[in-house]
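hey can u check if this looks right to u? its 77 residues, i copy pasted from the old doc so theres a chance i mangled smth
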Amino acid sequence: MDLLSKIILFHRQKSGLSRIKLANISGISKTVIYDIEHGKASVQFNSIHKVLQTLNIKIKFESPLMKSFEETNYEKI
């Protein structure tokens, strides 16, 4: 969470956004933005996902089984 927190803080600052502005754009509270940037473990993934989308940060899933997973009809899993 520490690395993710730093990435989000860096992107917010470089984007010239205050916590309040990012919260308003993301649709979450400024307290949640603060909690994310300070690595609080109890923040819901949905909130983190909204912030990542707002800051145009992509998540890439990698694993030895990912190719096999992508070849399946994973919606039925």
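The helical segments are 2-14, 19-26, 30-37, 45-54, 66-71.
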